[in-house]
Design a protein that fits this description.
By secondary structure, the chain is of the alpha+beta class. It has 2 domains: about 110 residues, Archaeosine Trna-guanine Transglycosylase, Chain: A, domain 4 (Roll), CATH 2.30.130.40; about 70 residues. It has 5 helices and 6 strands; from the N terminus they run ββαββββαααα. A 5-stranded mixed barrel has the order 1-3-4-5-6.
């Protein structure tokens, strides 16, 4: 499939994972224009994370990481003064192949980055999925509507990353990991080992 061109909305602290919702308040003139153009088209917007040092050139076009989250507008409200409230849903990881437009906002040619499952590792991945369901399903399973049971491992990983990982750079590392097993290992390192319950009281 040929890479498609979508508007690029880079922010310093936002990583949009597939399957997740992102509310946005649009007030800068260039991103109001981006929003109007996206709504006039297919409603897709690529959310990119700005690289460190962006503060020096925020009003220009500071560097963005190559892997971004592709979102689609689910809901929008235009305010009387031209600002917008948006709700995006993440639909895919994408690679920014080429910046094709710089002003008034950036547009990028993007290609989908599919999940990679190594051949012969299906059993190990199912074990990882069951472990995550047991650890996090009771608390976070409602985020996918019906608990984590039956939910594919890549979806579980994206839900957990979006919900439990706060550091933008760590979130970006998880976005950049197309290999599902590698992503699971990274997430496990970031979340740490399961907490044990309170110790049993001594008999003495």
């Amino acid at each position: 499939m040929e890479p498609s061109v979508v508007p690029l909305f880079p922010l310093p602290n936002v990583v949009l994972f597939p399957h997740m919702l992102l509310p946005l308040y649009i007030f800068e003139p260039r991103y109001r224009a981006l929003t109007r153009d996206a709504l006039a088209g297919d409603g897709q917007i690529a959310m990119g994370l700005l690289q460190p040092g962006w503060e020096e050139d925020y009003q220009g076009n500071p560097p963005v990481y190559d892997i971004a989250g592709l979102g689609r507008v689910l809901q929008h409200t235009e305010l009387p003064d031209g600002r917008f409230h948006l709700m995006l849903v993440g639909i895919a990881r994408v690679r920014l192949v080429e910046i094709v437009r710089e002003t008034p906002y950036r547009s990028a040619r993007v290609e989908i980055v599919p999940d990679v499952v190594r051949q012969g590792r299906e059993g190990e991945l199912e074990g990882m999925r069951r472990s995550l369901v047991a650890r996090f399903g009771p608390a976070l399973g409602s985020l996918v509507g019906h608990g984590f049971e039956g939910v594919p491992l890549p979806v579980i990983l994206d839900v957990l990353a979006s919900t439990l990982v706060g550091d933008p750079r760590e979130r970006q590392l998880l976005m950049e990991s197309a290999d599902v097993e590698e992503r699971c290992g990274l997430l496990a390192q970031m979340l740490g080992p399961p907490r044990r319950g309170p110790a049993e009281p001594s008999a003495n």
